[in-house]
Amino acid sequence: MASAEPSREGEPGHEAEPGRERDSWAQLGPVVRREPALKLLNPVSGLEPLTWSDDHRLSVSTTGSVSVMDLVPDLRSSVPDLVLHRTHIPLHQPPCELQVTSKVKEKLEKCSDPTIRQPFLVDRIINPQSGALQGVKYTSWSPLGCDLNGRCLLACLTLDCRLTIHSSHKRLQWTQLLDLTELYGEMLKARNYSVENSDVPQPSLDDPDELQRRYRMQMPVRMEWSSLCNTQQVQSNNAYKDIGTVLLAVLMENGDLVVWQFRLPMQGKGSVVSCNTIKSGVSSPSVLAWWEYEHGGRKMSGLIVGSSVGPVKILPVNLKAVKGYFTLRQPVVLWQETDQIPVHNIKCVSLFHPHQKCNCSLVVAARGSYVFWCLLLISKAGLNVHNSHVTGLHSMPIMSISTSRNGGSIFTCSMDGAVKKLTPVFTDMAVVFKQEEIALPEGVAGQRIHGISVSPNGAYLALVSTEGLINGFHPVNRSYQVQFVTLKTPDEAAAELLESQLQNLYRQTDLLDLVRWRVLKDRCIPPFLQDELDDKVHTTGSTYLWRFKLFLLRILYQSMQKAPTEALWKPSHQDSKVFVGEEEAGGAPAEEAEQGEVSQVAETSGLEELREKKAKGEFSEEQVNEITAWIEEVESHLTREHMKRVLGEVYLHTLITENTCIPTKGLCDFLSNDPTNEDRAAKVLIGHIMNKMNKQTFPEHCNLCKEILPFTDRKQAVSTPCALLIDPDWVKKILQGPCTFCDSPLL
């Protein structure tokens, strides 16, 4: 495989980096405030108001809506600031009313006993007419791959106890899929408000305690998603088929655990597979988290429940027909004392124990101003539990806690504006924590912090804050805003991207944005990054690295563009028609090179002149065309690799539905007649396919116009398989796959 490796000296974007630029990035350090800071329309509400999803969307709980901010490493913008697409999910009107007979309320309103009547009148859940609570209590993001586009779903719990699940449609539109409060209320009513389907008579609703019990069993406290799992479903031919599912655990006010199982992708009530209720036995429950542990190739799961009076324990979750799912035999108590210190938040981090040479699970929880930790390790003797507290972190109760997946770092904050970082250091059997205070930059330090959240790969720390004391006094009016600070340098982000095990750019958007920031600021690709990337591309040929190279070249191209003098939204007053052929012919094509040779470019008039042009924002047309040619070459390579993957699927599946058309012969001819590429693997594959062409049963013409499907230009191919009606699973998998150039889902 030939790869373009132009000479470094004198090239735009690849010149020797000045020492002044290196010093400026070194002086910034890892913690830097990024623009813009986003103001919220309403005050924040609920516990843990910030939640970051696996697809890099940040949800903010407010009194009027859920504000969602989508981090996008925009390839069309030359501004180095963060690019955030902002949407809102408004609250329901009117307030939620739980499924309980209304006649009982009338009796309580007219009750002459003040000890019965007054608690009813002041309860804003049982009696919403007294003033329903407004705002969002908690939000939780599902793992990737749960909606139709392969993105995350958002579960939203409001203060009036309404639990709903939402999906984003075409990025900027939200749709409610399910109202779980209404659905669970109907289930309880059908079984006479008993946990299990039984004929045991229930107490009369004239008893206020019974009325309170029926309300508390419908009032969610927290909810959390599990990781993806598979369920075996019996087909019409008695064969088993694996169906992707996800679990949503809901903790109720009375201590019940309601575990919902949904079929993926989730589309509504029809996606509900099962709903099981588990008695936790925890009094005054306050927080919930999934415990997931992998040992010896087996995955174990359970639910961690914390109480507002102190105790914490793990409960087994027994589910049938879930493939590869195991749970505990009995509950495991992590903290037993009822010390009246409430458990505010729980996080579970999977780590590798360097001394025991096995996986372990670290559970951390915020309890007042302390951090409770528990290390769980499975050995030959069974499950080992080590626990303790980290003290002296904050002078005030911890407001929020967030964890980083890489390295297991833990971040905590209190209302006084202090943010601390805990790094676990393993001993022979237990763990100790290295404490470090995050030096917040100007504009963030000294503010009142209500919540924090770390991005999926630990690149950014999001904070929701308000003004602190002004001259020793609280401000009359407070404005709430979300700010972003970096936790890594762009060089560290680039190094992680090069050595990444994910092999997916979309799932590392936060790291990509740091690299984008530096390239746009310096208007060049860091030499160390370019050199190491070219070496890895040449030795491994990884398509992931080719996509990373394309991303860098596109950002570099944007940094060369002049800033527009007029607003981009203004319409043009000149009407001009441009043919597609003329538009495509405007760019300078890449020079053809022989196999194994490295393409060379002409040298410019020296580094000093180039740096002066870069400082003035000027680049020659030749330099811009040079970058355009490199982009074209990388895109062409990625397109050919995608064609080979499609042809490999075609070779394995010769029998498909009647109305599916795939231009197999056109793809083979395009790859065979490409003079700029000599790919032996493609030639071998094409040879096998041509020998098998007489066995295929699908046509290569359009079902609408009956014309032969042409394939002469990869840019004009809308999609490689052209399916008009019902598709087989392997064609659906190709059509629903991510973008060939950036790994992002096709919305």
TrEMBL record:
Gene Ontology process terms (BP): transcription initiation at RNA polymerase III promoter
Domain Transcription factor IIIC 90kDa subunit N-terminal, chain residue ranges per copy: 52-488
Feature: compositional bias, Basic and acidic residues: 1-24
Alphabetized InterPro entries for the sequence: DUF5921, GTF3C4, TFIIIC_delta_N, WD40/YVTN_repeat-like_dom_sf, WD40_repeat_dom_sf
GO MF terms held by the record: histone acetyltransferase activity
Region span, Disordered: 1-26
Ranges of residues in domain DUF5921: 489-566
One Gene Ontology term, aspect cellular component: transcription factor TFIIIC complex
PANTHER family named among the record's database cross-references: GENERAL TRANSCRIPTION FACTOR 3C POLYPEPTIDE 4, GENERAL TRANSCRIPTION FACTOR 3C POLYPEPTIDE 4 FAMILY
Protein name stated in the entry: Ral transcription factor IIIC subunit 4
Source species of the chain: Astyanax mexicanus
